[in-house]
Design a protein that fits this description.
Blueprint: E1 6-8, H1 12-15, E2 26-31, E3 36-42, E4 48-50, H2 57-77, H3 86-102, H4 104-121, H5 132-145, E5 154-160, E6 168-169, E7 174-176, H6 178-182, H7 184-187, E8 199-203, E9 208-213, E10 218-219, E11 226-229, H8 232-245, E12 249-252, H9 258-268, E13 277-288, E14 291-297, E15 308-314, E16 327-328, E17 333-336, E18 343-344, E19 359-362
Parallel strand pairs: 5-11
Antiparallel strand pairs: 1-4, 2-3, 2-12, 5-9, 6-12, 7-8, 8-9, 10-16, 13-14, 13-15, 17-18, 17-19
Helix pairs in contact: 2-3, 3-5, 4-5, 8-9
Length: about 375
């Protein structure tokens, strides 16, 4: 039995820099569903559920180890111009990754996908639906199996020199991909943490935001891993990503920023995707000489068929604008073999288990 009943999926060590009191126990929030600002909420009741990770002490201890590593590195990460230590270079992407897959939002998306898939399969004797705790367990196994997936990314700490603070949310680790979003017409929208062009964004405080990025596709000019953010529009672009990625709550530090957060809501309300996943149903259309072809159809109007494939796709956030500190790398490149593997970074060429080798491709920038 886990010794800690109330388990946080966004840890208090992460939220504390966004608190409003000296004791780091009070935080301000904006609830999107009610379009309401709530001032001076207790931090201990934010982003938590009873036994969210189940009742295995070993699992909770492993999570707490990552959180404690992050908490010990945080003072250095918030110290302007302090060089990144080798430890911080490992801790940051791994904490980001854990936070990305373990929130209630991530688990709810997995549950929703499993429910839709279950309805499509119509299996007579078995259900494929998942509960929240099962989804959490799957996510944490994925984390353990892909622990080093982001270790090759470059890291910058963006220091906010404007009057507009960074905000955070109940799903703060944003995964997006400016390159693939820009190239969607020819490449397609699907991508994961190993994909070429990923951007992993996590505000650390109202003044500091961490950006992990594919250095073969992007360039962020910096000095000792620090970049100054001087334009309010750049802070807005980073805050917009938090709004678009969150489930229900935006968190901020100062009472005086309530109107600014309301403006964030007004600016992005219609852009938030109604769903964060899409399911494709494909039926077998032809099979000969060892090759089987499938075609995507509407399940409700599908003709008679004996076999089908279901593909579940996560939908990522797509902002209206990107921060100006993010540049294209001259002669950027990625690797692909034109299969479902997609487009991967140089460090992940070895993940292809097919006979078709990955080849180096140019991005066109």
């Amino acid at each position: 039995m886990a010794s800690n009943k109330n388990q946080h999926f966004v840890p208090r060590c992460y939220l504390r820099p966004f608190t409003t009191d000296e004791d780091r126990k009070i935080i301000n929030l904006f609830n999107i569903d009610r379009a309401k600002v709530i001032l001076d909420a207790p931090i201990k009741s934010q982003c938590s559920r009873d036994y969210f990770y189940g009742t295995d002490d070993r699992l909770e201890n492993a999570i707490q180890f990552v959180e404690k590593s992050y908490a010990s590195a945080l003072p250095d990460l918030l110290s302007y111009r302090k060089p990144l230590t080798p430890k911080s270079r490992v801790v940051i992407p791994r904490f980001w990754f854990l936070q990305h897959i373990r929130t209630e939002a991530a688990s709810q998306r997995t549950v929703a996908m499993s429910e839709e898939a279950d309805e499509l399969i119509e299996h007579p004797t078995e259900s494929f639906k998942l509960g929240i705790k099962e989804a959490v367990q799957i996510a944490l196994r994925s984390y353990a199996e892909n622990l080093d997936a982001l270790d090759d990314l470059k890291i910058v700490l963006a220091y906010n020199k404007t009057d507009i603070p960074f905000i955070t949310s109940d799903d703060p680790s944003v995964l997006t991909n400016r390159w693939l979003i820009n190239s969607m017409a020819t490449i397609g929208p699907g991508y994961g943490p190993r994909a070429a062009g990923v951007l992993c964004i996590l505000p650390l405080s109202p003044r500091v935001c961490c950006i992990c990025y594919d250095g073969h596709i992007y360039s962020i000019p910096n000095v000792g891993n620090w970049v100054d953010v001087r334009y309010p529009a750049d802070v807005d672009a980073i805050n917009d990503l938090q709004y678009l990625n969150c489930v229900a709550n935006i968190y901020f530090s100062e009472h005086a920023d309530s109107d600014r957060v309301l403006g964030l809501h007004t600016r992005n309300e219609g852009l938030k995707p109604p769903a964060r996943h899409r399911i494709h149903y494909a039926i077998e259309t032809e099979s000969s000489n060892g090759v089987t072809k499938f075609a995507v159809v509407d399940k409700k109007n599908a003709p008679e068929h004996s076999r089908a494939l279901i593909h579940m796709e996560s939908l990522r956030v797509e902002p209206k604008k990107w921060p100006s500190i993010l540049h294209w790398r001259n002669k950027g490149y990625f690797y692909s073999n034109d299969t479902g593997l997609g487009h991967v970074r140089q460090a992940h060429q070895g993940i292809s288990k097919e006979n078709r080798p990955l080849t180096k491709r140019r991005t066109g920038y």
